Amino acid sequence: MNPRFVYLILILCTFAVSAKPQSPAKPQVPAKPQGSAKSRAPAAVKVPAPDWSYVEARLKKAKFKKSFIKVLKETYEAKHFQQTLELNVLLFLRKHDDHGVQVSKDAAETVKTFMSANSKSLAAAEKEHGVSKSVIASLLWLESRHGVNQGRFHVASVYLHLLQAPRPEVVAHLKRAAHLFAPVISKKNLADIEKRTLKKQTWALEELAALQKMHAKDAKLMRGLRGSFAGAFGIPQFIPSSYLRWARSPNKSVSPDLNRAQDAIQSVAFYLKDNGWKTGLDKTFVKALLKYNNSTDYAQAILKLAEKVDGGPFKAREPASKKTPATKRKKN
Question: CA 249, CA 231: separation in Å to the nearest integer?
């Protein structure tokens, strides 16, 4: 082959390679400005999850029975963990009562209907314990609308959630969530939140101990028990320790069932009497009701509703059993 021809081919090949189009260069992404820490948006905060190992350790330390711990584990519901903790620990930040606004003509009519349907049970409770029928019926309406609104929270799980309140990550979350309950959070508020987590844990252990006793008497009752975010259940919204101490049934041979109107009526009447309600002494009424719910607004709302039901100023009638002449009240 002619050398000149070979040389020409080499030149043409070189030109072809140099003329090949190059891939476009990637555009340069400008660097993000390094703003101060205050100007940056806060990172998303992960809500802490339930920790059964933490729960189990506390239950074992408190000497709960292994069989009961097993039942608690099997029935534990992780849902409502955040909501339960926030409502129980942070609700104190809201400084308003709303019981009084619930007292209305419609509410009074509903109470009258309940009283008519349960006249015998109410009369028996008033006679035995000296607590006005209208007060019992009004309290049960305010607590659960006579059983219509008892709550959807699994009672045992409520206390298992609260048992975890002092976990550091939970306390940190509650302090961050405090602004949802009040516009301004002070240092004292933050300190109170931390103290409340410890109190709620202690309270949870007490109520779980009461549930253990309830479970020993009736396993079916405890497993499916549902109520409020505070662990209160039944028509009168008793917590477990209150159930053990004050729940009553007209039928002494069976365990009280607070979903039965007659049992709820007896239980409330006995509770108020045992906590200081004295027939004819007006000053004792609010004090006894405050034991049920530590809110003056709550106590006044019940008495006002009872007044609407009775059609006049509330006065506790003295039951027939209390009208015994003084000469016949001698001790045996």
Answer: 21
238 three-state secondary structure: strand
- Contact 246/252 with Cβ under 8 angstroms? no
226: part of which helix (H) or strand (E)? strand 226-227
Beta-carbon-side half-sphere exposure of residue 215 (alpha carbons within 13 Å):
21
Q: Are 248 and 255 in contact (CB under 8 A)?
A: no
Ranges of each domain in the chain: 52-319
Helix (H, G, I), strand (E, B) or coil at 162: helix
Q: What would the pLDDT profile of 181-220 be if each residue is shown by its tens digit? A: 999 999 999 999 999 999 999 999 999 999 999 999 988 8
Q: Do residues 314 and 320 touch, judged by C-beta distance below 8 A?
A: no
Q: Which residue has the tokens 């074992």?
A: 60
Report CA dihedral (173, 175, 180, 186) to the nearest 10 degrees.
-170
pLDDT digits (tens, 9 = 90+) for 143-155: 999 999 999 999 9
Q: Which of 85, 133, 71, 139 lies closest to 295 in space, CA to CA?
A: 139
Region label for 87, one of left (φ > 0), alpha (ψ between -120 and 50) or beta (otherwise): alpha
Q: Could you tell me the pTM of the whole model? A: 0.80
SS3 192: helix
Query: Which residue stretches of the chain have pLDDT < 50?
Result: 1-44, 318-332
Using CA atoms, how far residue 307 sits from 62, 131, 303, in Å, is 47, 14, 6
Residue 42, SS3 per DSSP: coil
- Tokens, residue 43: 């990172």
